[in-house]
Amino acid sequence: MTVQQAVRYLNQERIVFLLTVLLFVIFASTLHNFLAADNILSLIRSVAVLGILGLGMLIVVLGRGIDLSLVAIMAISVA
User: Fold this and answer.
1) Cα–Cα distance between 65 and 72 in angstroms, integer?
2) Could you tell me which residues come within 8 angstroms of residue 9 by beta carbon, excluding any fewer than 6 positions away?
């Protein structure tokens, strides 16, 4: 595989996925309790709100009623 083919193969989604896997492996190997059940549940709870908002936005966008105001409301509420 040449460099040009490798660059074409990598898109934004693949780069983010590879970085996520790389960070997960690094944290799992260096932090003692990273793979503990309590920590995994804490990680899932912390991203659950974003997942629920993402599913809601999916329904809105698929219904062709594109309304991205939830992102602005969430950004204001977190700030």
Assistant:
1) 16
2) 1
Write the pLDDT tens digit of every residue in 3-48: 777 777 888 888 999 999 999 999 999 999 999 999 999 989 988 8
Residue holding tokens 């460099």? 3
Query: Diameter of the chain by CA atoms?
Result: 47
Structure tokens at 49: 């709100």
Q: Classify 3 as helix, strand or coil.
A: helix
Taking the C-alpha atoms of residue 34 and residue 27, their distance in angstroms, rounded to an integer, is: 7
C-alpha separations of 68 from 15, 28, 63, 72 in Å: 25, 35, 13, 7
Looking at residue 57, its amino acid is M
Distance of CA 55 to the CA centre of its chain: 13
